[in-house]
């Protein structure tokens, strides 16, 4: 019985990855890299650390014309990323959501990840609009260079509990791990 559950979950993840890949083939990554300051969110006071420039010829042609599965900074990290992924959504999806408690737990999780996985793992936090830029995203992204917040508003057709599996369809990601419990 449990075996069927895992097969179904794997199938759903693969289907979602396939759909995401094909739905996002209309916006050029490369032109955006050269036109924007990928290191700074307009609402944040800081700029994130500079990342190495991606060589255009090192990016497979299938990647050059897709929307971001996370954000521009995450894509600028380039290929061979090692990702730990979680979903973080507000009270609409999670009746037990408490903003302050989630912020504290998220900081503890980041500190634990930095101890347990110190060698170049990035935490991707897939979130909805209930997560505030000024109160949560900016303070964390400015403090931790290995954390990327991925706004899921353009992908609301995907159920929030599935968001954490999106890195499985990201061509820049080599290794991905997923947390099952939401914060």
Give the structure's gist in a few sentences.
The chain is of the alpha/beta class and 183 residues long. The chain has 5 helices and 4 strands.
Please give a structural write-up:
The structure is a single chain. It is globular, with a radius of gyration of 16 Å. A four-stranded parallel sheet has the order 3-2-1-4. Strand 2, helix 5 (133-143) and strand 3 form a beta-alpha-beta unit. It has helices spanning 2-23, 29-35, 72-76, 99-116, 133-143, and strands at residues 81-88, 121-127, 147-151, 173-178. By secondary structure, it is α/β, with parallel strands linked by helices. It has one domain.
Write the layout of secondary structure elements.
Layout: H1 2-23, H2 29-35, H3 72-76, E1 81-88, H4 99-116, E2 121-127, H5 133-143, E3 147-151, E4 173-178
Parallel strand pairs: 1-2, 1-4, 2-3
CA-based gyration radius: 16 Å
What ranges have pLDDT less than 50 throughout 5 or more consecutive residues? 25-35
Overall number of strands: 4
- What structural category characterises the helix and strand content? alpha/beta
Count of spatially separate domains = 1
| Main β-sheet, spatial strand arrangement | 3-2-1-4
In percent terms, what proportion of residues is strand? 5-15%
Question: Biggest β-sheet, characterized?
Answer: 4 strands, parallel
Number of helices: 5
CA-to-CA gap between the ends? 28 Å
Name the average pLDDT. 79
Query: What is the 3D shape?
Result: globular
Q: Tell me roughly what share of residues is in helical segments.
A: 25-40%
What pattern of helices and strands is seen along the backbone?
A: HHHEHEHEE
